């Protein structure tokens, strides 16, 4: 297919004001009657035909203003329905289509998940339900009548408020009618029909609207929806307080389904979720699961304003809703939990996924200029870097300026389909700031690099920072312009206090933030009587890579004294990464590994500091991952050497700090029964991190402690972490604990996913065979995306040495899986294939094998647009 380009955007020729749907649910023959109230768009082309999108539809009938249309009045292709010469006035189109929800394995449009009818329309799924101008700038008011067998689907849900329901006398069928008063694009349409249990609650909004809340789950699972409900109510309150956003319907429903291509979907008034992000109990969900549920419930709810009330003009503007909404959910979680720890976790993820994406062949701008398959652009760049860009706006404009800009955005664009230009104009107008150069963050891909050199001049009592910025070349963008980068910093004096920041002209940078907008700057601070250590990019205010002339002593100093907790953490990570890169080289050339003394001292100091939050210490003790190390090395990477270097470091830490690690493990046992709150979760993070270091080092009775924890665990966090530690470091115990875990949870699909995932991530040569064997396990199915991601996704992304086996068998296995899945679920297949995106950084042998696997896929006939797009760009 030809690429779609942002510059080719044209407004729609026809608008749809109202959509009346009458849906007769049936497992294999669902009938959809759509009545569209349409009119020519004054901003469109005059006299244009009506072109509607369609995908895998069977057209049963078509009428215009009540008259069946003659065959020569329209034409149908596999992807469209065109009315060649419609009257140029308001008209009503009636379309009847026939679908088979049971055969819908793509999980786009209307499908069945464990017998429940549900929909997924973003980005382009509504065209799989009826013929429609399937683009986000066509906003209509929807009324949906759903009819079904009472037995099969006692629960019938739609967008908006329920306005009618009843039985069909003399039949076994019943119906419900839902009306959504808010005009919306069709990607926000949803319906659900099934046999589901409901958890109910109420929420009264700031202005007194009484909202009925419902969470629908598979029968018998209602007890596990309590945390999600609590998170929902907290999200609703927070959005009123932090952004002045109030809910706008009488009902808000969430439905959890087991088969879902991604996390969740923000359909108006009817969010549909992957049940992984709804269901939780202490015995089945980890602390991380609880945190994800809280964040995703909030994210989808926050879309009600950023996404639904104000939507995107076209799919190039995806970050308008996604980046902004991720920023909002990050801030929510930061307020509910520990702000510094939340930032550390978010930055870890940003680096792991977005920096990696930005450094490889799939790099693209936060707002891409072109795409072939939009589903491939729900990426870390659009979401996470998109959120970082919003965060930088707030850093540059200050809290008040940012809030004023947001208020103006809501006021100006409510009910519209907007663009990034519209969004930025609100901040420019609200604060009188020129954001033209800032807008490059949306257009230029690649992670900017800051090279910073600091020098103290004792004679002049001044401190000079020389700052150079550059943005590396990325696909389609060989040359870059300088960006606007907020550089948040402090000068930390010898006593650990921040020195005053006074520039040579006597001014102080507001909020300690310098603006870097040219290729080169020199900033000179005066009245600096003692040699400071600069703390750079505090809070990771800018999503950049930083190189500086800080010595390892400086980093150790910052790790102890910086008042910015993020940079205390980051100082240790920088030390660790420096060590790991050197150690990887040493492994490859057979040299002795260097001594990580400074690093161990810094970690030991954190562990010994009673003032620190245990969750924070847990992060400090978690060394960069194998893929972080590989990305930083950047070329000629040998994953086995990376693994060996990292394991050596962890062993050294575990050995040198055995006593304090074991002490912390004892000291931080959470008192009383399990609670998922951040403080208790933090203690568990720290304990389990200590345990894993001890077990790796064969010290402090790590393995015995892990076995004890596994057996005594009253919660999934401890059980899973100890299981993982045992699987990695106690091969003798492995079979027994895995069998025990399976027996305990064999009837619980979400926990079984964890069982599959743990086994696929064991870093040893037998793992690929084990993964292959597990694809034949009775519980494995290619039809369930969670299961596929648990076994195969986590093998490809969470087990670098075995996925990147030198013989290329890991790549071949992935290629076979991708090809096997492409016919049934191309979105999932394309996602899995993304695991190969860093193939170019590998050493020659593996690089050749990975390339061969990619070429084999590329050479296969009949690829989906999804896989074809990823493989083509990966090889380009
Ligand atoms: N907007 C959806 C993602 C839809 C993905 C389509 N392939 C979930 C979210 O970001 O909230
Ligand atoms: Zn979203």
Automatic annotation (TrEMBL):
It comes from the Bacteria. Coiled coil: none annotated. The keyword Protein transport does not apply. InterPro entries: Aminopeptidase_N-like_N (IPR045357), Aminopeptidase_N-like_N_sf (IPR042097), PepN_Ig-like_sf (IPR038438), Peptidase_M1 (IPR001930), Peptidase_M1_dom (IPR014782), Peptidase_M1_pepN (IPR012779), Peptidase_M1_pepN_C (IPR024601), Peptidase_M1_pepN_C_sf (IPR037144). SUPFAM superfamilies: Leukotriene A4 hydrolase N-terminal domain (SSF63737), Metalloproteases ('zincins'), catalytic domain (SSF55486). One of its GO terms (molecular function) is alanyl aminopeptidase activity. Belongs to the peptidase M1 family. This is Aminopeptidase N.
